[in-house]
Amino acid sequence: MRPDYIKILQDGGIDIVNLANNHTGDYSTQGIEDTLRYLDDAGIKHVGAGLDRADTRKPVVIECKGIKIGFLGYYNNPDFAGGTNPFNERVLKYPAR
């Protein structure tokens, strides 16, 4: 993600993004690291991508008006590639355990 896109997300009131998609790895591991750092520095939560499989599977919970909402990010990727969380029905059934 280009760093100037962070301001667009902030101006749009975006609090969380799903990074599990087929373009996450377009700029290799360095691009993923940069994207995660930009989002973290801006306080924008993210799901579905990370530097290892455990990071990609971490859920995010946001509370809005007293209601907790959980977010997960999955991409129909047959294996760990591009730093994204591959879809796995078994894992999806029990993500927060």
Describe this structure in words.
There is one protein chain. The protein is of the alpha+beta class. The protein has one domain. Helix content is 33%, strand content 16%. Strand 1, helix 2 and strand 2 form a beta-alpha-beta unit. The longest helix has 15 residues. It is flat and about 35 Å long.
Offer a concise description of the structure:
This protein has one domain (4-90). It is built from four helices and four strands. It has helices at 4-11, 28-42, 53-56, 89-93, and strands at residues 16-18, 45-47, 60-64, 67-71.
What tags apply to this protein structure?
97 residues, alpha+beta, two-stranded antiparallel sheet, 33% helix, 16% strand, flat
Total of domains: 1
Secondary structural class: alpha+beta
Number of strands: 4
Please tell me the overall pLDDT: 85
Categorize the overall geometry: flat
- Give the termini distance in whole angstroms: 31 Å
Q: What topology, given as strand order, has the largest sheet?
A: 1-2
Main sheet, how many strands, which sense, barrel?
2 strands, parallel
